[in-house]
Design a protein that fits this description.
The protein is an alpha+beta fold and 335 residues long. It is 21% helix and 24% strand. The protein contains six helices and 20 strands. It has a five-stranded antiparallel β-sheet with strand order 6-7-15-11-12, with helices on both faces. Helix 2 packs antiparallel against helix 4. The longest helix has 19 residues. The structure holds flavin-adenine dinucleotide. The site of flavin-adenine dinucleotide (FAD) has 33 residues, from strand 3, helix 3, strand 9 and strand 15.
Length: 335
């Protein structure tokens, strides 16, 4: 048994991959941050359920897709990261015309799959560098579309391995916000839900007790060639407006009602502002890029500074869209 496995795991019963001390910089698009104590990448859904049935109740569990909306602090993560990207990857067309997509499927693959089957309406997913699970968790969207508009139903599992079918009616869904309506972990009672237009300070998120493993999505019948053309046009738009040549996590702050975070940040003269290796992008003011050697602390400090300056100069409190998790590195303990 690997040193990093809690004694309770019987890995001989599992088919996935368990590893210890995994740098989360490898699994987050900011390419920064500390290590996960343990990581489990299940072989498939059955294997995930077997893993969850073994999970000690006290073991913290973090669900990660492509890490494109995630900052892991330099002191790392206690417990186990469940890595669903590269794990739950099934994608198929159902008899009723809906698309079944497992949580680990990347948005780009979903968009291409839909176009291949002459479906329209998934094009916006092409430029979102996250998984279906992460998109459902964030209600990801762009160019006037959001993922939950397309959801017929979702499949979830909880920590004990119980599988559930849910629909949009079970959730509070808003702008970059999704939370179970029922009370408890993941619901408002435990800090998972945030009323529209309001965000808690980071790290606001309790560890999920229930998470997404698959979704059935409904797209319109249409012309696949036009969908592919639309995908190319949307990607070109992103290349022109976003600093995709450097590690980043997309928009750092949510847009406040009736305004744009990027506009406010630029108006405050913050474009190009640096802390260590983190920099407010010159190309898109709501992006913070890792210029090479940024620590998670550099990025978090820059987020705090931007927020403070914008608040001071405009009176508007910007709320982070990115999720910040993990422990701070103790002062005097390395980089
Ligand atoms: C260049 C760039 C452009 C971007 N553009 C957009 C955009 O246009 N629109 C947009 O909305 N976002 C955008 N993003 C942000 C990001 O891609 C989305 O938020 C995406 O949905 C995150 O998916 P992920 O798999 O990477 O999630 P992660 O970053 O891995 O996780 C994000 C959160 O979701 C939770 N989560 C992940 N998987 C699950 C699951 N299966 N069940 C429950 N919770 C889960 C995690 O615990 C975490 O709290 C962009 C990011 C980048 C880097």
């Amino acid at each position: 048994m690997n040193m990093s496995e809690p004694k309770q795991f019987k890995t001989e019963d599992l088919r996935g991959e368990m590893s210890g001390g995994v740098p989360m910089s490898r699994h987050t698009s900011w390419r920064a941050g500390g290590a996960a104590e343990r990581m489990y990448q299940p072989a498939d859904l059955d294997d995930l359920l077997a893993f969850l049935r073994q999970l000690p109740p006290e073991e913290p569990l973090h669900v990660v897709g492509l890490g494109s909306n995630l900052l892991v602090r330099d002191g790392g993560l206690h417990g186990t990261v469940l890595l669903l990207h590269g794990a739950l990857g099934e994608l198929r067309l159902e008899a009723d015309g809906s698309v079944y997509a497992e949580a680990g499927v990347p948005g780009a693959k979903l968009a291409r799959f839909a176009a291949l089957h002459n479906l329209r309406g998934a094009e916006f997913c092409a430029g979102i560098p996250g998984t279906v699970g992460g998109m459902l968790a964030m209600n990801a969207g762009c160019y006037g579309s959001e993922i939950w508009e397309k959801v017929l139903r979702v499949q979830t599992v909880d920590r004990s391995g119980e599988v559930r079918m849910r629909t949009a009616e079970d959730y509070e869904i808003g702008y970059r916000h999704v939370a179970l309506k029922e009370k408890g972990e993941g619901g408002r009672e435990k800090g998972g839900a945030v009323p529209e237009g309001f965000t808690l300070p980071s790290p606001p998120f309790s560890l999920p007790q229930e998470f997404f493993v698959a979704a059935w999505l409904k797209f319109e019948a249409g012309d696949g060639a036009i969908a592919r053309q639309e995908i190319r046009a949307l990607l070109a738009k992103r290349i022109a407006s976003q600093p995709l040549n450097l590690p980043n996590a997309g928009s750092v702050f949510r847009n406040p009602p009736g305004d744009h975070a990027a506009r406010l940040i630029q108006q405050c003269g913050l474009k190009g502002r640096r802390i260590g290796g983190a920099q407010v992008s010159e190309k898109h003011a709501n992006f913070i890029v890792n210029t090479g050697e940024a620590t998670a602390a550099d990025i978090e400090n820059l987020i705090d500074e931007v927020r403070a300056v914008v608040r001071q100069q405009t009176g508007i409190d910007l709320h982070p869209e990115v999720r910040i998790i993990g422990e701070k590195r103790e002062v005097g303990n390395g980089k």
